[in-house]
Structure formats: structure tokens, C-alpha cells
Amino acid sequence: MISYRKDTDMIATLILDMQGRESNVINPDIVTSFRPLIDHLKAEKARGQLKGIIITSAKSDFLQGGDLESLYHQSDPAALFDAAQRLKEFLRDLERPGVPVVAAMNGHALGTGFELALACHHRIALDDTKIRLGHPEVSIGLIPSGGAIIRLMWLLGIERAYPILIEGRRYSPHEALKVGLVDQLASSQADMLDKAKCWLLDNPEYRNPWDDPNRQIPGGSAQDAQLGHQIRLITAQLSATSNDQYPAQQAIIDLLAEGSKVDFDTACILDSRYYAKVASGQVCKSMISTFWFDKNAVQSGWNRPKGIGRFRPRKIGVIGAGQMGSGIAFACIRRGLRVVLKDVSIPVAERGRAFVEDRIDEYIVRGTFQPSERQEILNRLEVIDSSEQFADCDLVIEAVFENKMVKTKVTREAEEYLDDFGVMATNTISIPISTLAASSRRPANYVGLHFFPPAEQVNLVEIVRGKQTTDETVARAFDFATLIRKTPIVVKDVWGFYAARVQNTYILEGINLLQEGHPPGLVENLGLQVGMPKGPLSLADELGLEIVKSYEDQAATHYGKHYIQHPAAAALREMLENDRPGKSREAGFFDYTKGDLPTVWSGLKDLFPISKTDFDRKDIFERLLFAQILEAGWCLQEGVIASHAAANLGSIYGWGFPSYTGGVMRYIFTYGHQEFMDKAAVLEKTHGQRFKLPKYLKQLTEEELGKLAIV
User: Fold this and answer.
1) 381 forms bridges with which residues in the sheet?
2) At a CB cut-off of 8 Å and minimum separation 6, what does 459 contact?
3) What tens digit of pLDDT does each residue of 228-239 get?
4) Model confidence, pTM
């Protein structure tokens, strides 16, 4: 479990090596193993036979986080408080053996794993761009449990600690050094241990700032008038951006403010109380369910065709050097793949290279890449104006604009040079894959790979299976997506696929609220307050009203004479008749003037007069959310998407369904199945057939509802 070595300089090295595991994790076993060691170290110090301690790992990781499955199933705040206090006691024992302790991190140290590093007196990380460090807990609705918030406040001050904790980023070693999470970098394991030993010998009496009576929190406490005012501003800004839907974020700023006014040990008790409240809450449970269990299930290949060997592409072709194609190219080269980026001419393709260079430079500024890596990464990209260099590509993705003739042309040109095993993919958002595949030389090898803008950032890829797409092609697309660190969901070839189809219901419901006489500002703000990333009217403008209308038209064609058109379709027609197609023409529900914020189109009040002087906030919230959830239910019933996990992740990553809910299907579990069905019935009676509950959602079994609680 833990190896112990001591050298002639009386420096002890503790090597973490949990048996039967790929990674070291914080759990009761490792805490139990540490206790006799700590007692031994204290005895060694008392005899004058110990000058310092180095903690490192025998595995590729340093130390990972805690047991999320156990945490998920624990809802008793008192038990969670006690668990947090036990972890804090262990870390306090670790940082007070009477000698300084160095964390020599040779691999990932995340969450509870990084708590141990923070309890050490000095932190050294191996200079490896693949290593990730820090506290990502807030991204799953949680806060650290071992006192990291208080320790970071004492190390960095409130204003520097807050963004680190609230963003939940996983830092590369250089990024961690830049923000103050680590103190030194090392070029190798041997160099790291040498630096650790040198620091220990140079700092024999070092104490952590919170244990030094002569030290204070950098920048002061919340009792200081200026910092107190700044904290109030931060709190107000957080409330405005999160609409108070994320308890973990609020707990972080509250704890920093309150913890700064008391001594360290009292602050740690406050920390445990906040942790127990957040960890036992519904938002935390929902986010762990989706962002941990669901995500692991999808990425492990739950929906990947079985019995097909792993695909390991080396060279990718991308057609179209616009922002989408260039974003895809960057996502590939940063993961070590070679890319040829094609456009109509070299000068046009060079714009794509410039885009990629800008992204690389941004990551260098952040510390994710190092300046020495710049040329090596860029060398993986080649810009071309001929399809001949697709000959040795394993996969070619076309990302040209939405025009069937253009897509068909560039596909046929690329396929002339692809070998029989090469995969041809399209990034279309509105043209059926089977329609495009009809012109392909090898429709069995043709697949949709739908990235979401910006492609280099958004975590989701929809893999769209055409009528003739083989399982092997789908599996290869899946493997490619996971290789470039995307979450792949396999969807059926129908209008809008999954994400755009369901997103359209949010847009249409917002437009219908406008048509009913609600003020446009109210419609937008309620969309934001419920947790969507954009209001429905501005989102409609961004996508283009023609596309929004086309999805509704395709739905009408698909369902035939029994389909009842969405009432918002009439409003869309009126807008288009008034030559208001959206943001691309600077004329939609809003006017767009370069350099200025969008303003509501003055003619909107004539088309849709404001007649509502009162509104039911909860009813509108539920209309906006239920519209999306019910459509996701139809997608599950029709086989557009295959699992609850994919439905949840696709909803959050694909179009921004509020992450505090855990996604469209998790929302039903939280709301209560019977209560959800009852509310849908009320909405259908009041607002029409678009709120009709699909049979799939009516017939959810107790077993399926139970699975929604975890995966």
C-alpha cells in the first residue's frame, strides 16, 4: 500500500502503491495505512532521526479523487459531515509530523488526491503536459471535502483562490505553476526527488501559512472593507450568471468569506458543514449521476457496436477551412494526429492554419502548451487544395457549408483517393445522411460526424448512422471521437438528428410565448433564468429562422397528416415575410449593429403586440423545459437515441440543457415520475398536443427509473 524508505540525510520517502488498482485513490484503506506511518514518523522526529518527508507514487498517477459511488448513495448530512471531518483530521496529521513534507507529483492529482498535496508544505510536479492537477469538483456539483478551499485561501488569498475553485479546471503542470497550485516543476522523476530533497534540507522548520502565527491570508479577510465590497460584487455576479441554481458555486464564495474571519481549524469545521449540505443536495446527486456515471458509461463504449476491433487513426483529412473545419483540425492535432486541411485554394486553406495558430498561442498563454511545443504541434497540420493527399488518410471529414451539391462534390473528389477501408464523414446539421450517402462511392463507409461550435471546445459529437452505414464504420467514428477526447453519442438519421431536433422545441416554445403576448425581454430572461445558455429568441436568430422553420417543416413531413404544427410556425412565417431571417443578415428578432449589443427589433411590437401584464414564472420555466424533455422522450421511443445516459449528456453538451438538472431524463427522476406525468397532462390540456406524453415516458419501469438515479 505505502512503501517507506529513508536515506542517510534522514529524508523519508513514502511511495503510494495501492494493490489491485490502476490508480491510487483516497479511501479508508489508504487512510488506515497512513496512520501507523504517521505515528512512526513522529517518533522518528522526536528521536532526531527525521528531517523531512517526500510523498510520491509508484503508479502513473500520483493520487486520484475519492469514491463517488459511495458519496452518491450517501444522503445523510451528519454522515457526510463526519466523513469530511475524518479526512481533515488525517490531512492535519499529515501536515504536522514536526518536519516539512513535499508532494512529488509524478502523475494526475485531482480532487481529494490534490487535497493531500495541498496539505504538504511544498508541491513539485513532473513537467508533463498530459498530467492534470487541481480541483474539478464543482463541475459535478460538489465542493472539496478535505479543506482545500480554506488551504487555497491561505495560500493564494480569496481573489486568486476563487476563480480556481469556481471554474473547476484541470490544470497542466505549467498552468498549475502559473496560478500557484504548485511551487516547482521537474524534468524527470529523479530530478523531482532531487528538488524535493534540496527543498527539505533548505527548509527544516517550514510551516504551512495557516500554522504560522506570523502569517496572514494574502490580500486580507472579508472583514476588510475593500475586500468585503469585492466579495459582495463577486456574489452578485455569480447570482446573475448562475441564477442561484448551483449550490456548490455559492458555497465556495460563502465559505471563502466566512472562513477568512476565523482561525484555520474553525474554518475547516465550517467547510465540513457546507460540504455536507452540498453533497446531500439534489443538484449534486443529479450532476454526479450524469457527469460521472453516465459519462463513464458512454465513453466506455456502452453504445458502440460490439465485436469490432479498436480503430487507431493516424492521419485525418478535413475539407473546409472555416471555423468548424479548422476547429476540428485543431482538436485532432492537439491529440497527436496528423491532419491535412483542404479548401478551394492554398490562400483560403491558410486561413485555417492561422486559426489553428491562434488557438495554439492561446493555449501557450494559458500554460496548456509550452512555447517549445508550438512548432511540433503545428507541424502535424498541412494545408492543401487538392484531394490527392487524402490517399493515406484513415478518415476524411467534410465541414463545408450546408449545400447538398457542394457536399456531394467534395465527397466524391475525396473518395477517389481514399482506400477501401477509409471512412468518409460529413458534419452536416440539416441534410439527411442517407441522402448524402446516396451519391457516395461507398455508402457503407459513410457516416455523420456532427461537431458543435466551437468544435475545439464543445465536448459532444453526434455519430449519425445512415441507412447503409455499417457497424464497423460507426465503431470507427466512435473510436475517433473518444481519441480526440469528445463524448460520442450514436443517433438515428432523422431531421435535426437528436440535439438540434430537441433544441428546436425550446426555440419554438419561446417564440410562442412571444406570440401569446409576452414581452420579448421577459421571454429571453426567463430562458436564461431557467438555466439555458441563451434566450430562445436570440438562439433562433443565431441559428437562422429558415433552419428553425425547416426542422418544423421536416417534422410535419415525417409524421404526415396526423401532425399538428407548432403554433410558433405562424410567427416564423411572419418574420421571414418581413425579411427578418436572423443574425446572419443582422435582422431577426433583434437588430445587430457591429460593435453594439443587439437590440429588440422595433417592429416586433407591431407583429406581436404585448398583451400579457402578468405571468407565472414557474409555469413558463416548466413549459420551456418540458417541451425539450418530451421531445427527448419521443427520440428515445423512436430509436433516435439509444440510452438515457446518451440522452442526458447529449442534452447538456449538445444544446445546453441546464446542467444542474443532470439532463432531460434525470430531470424526470428528480421531478418524480408520476408528478411529471401529471404536469405534462396539465400542459397538454392547457397548451395543446405538443405537450403530449410519449408512451415511452409513460411506461418507464421502476427498474428504469432506478437506473436514472445512477446511469
Assistant:
1) 339
2) 485, 486, 487, 653
3) 999 999 999 999
4) 0.91
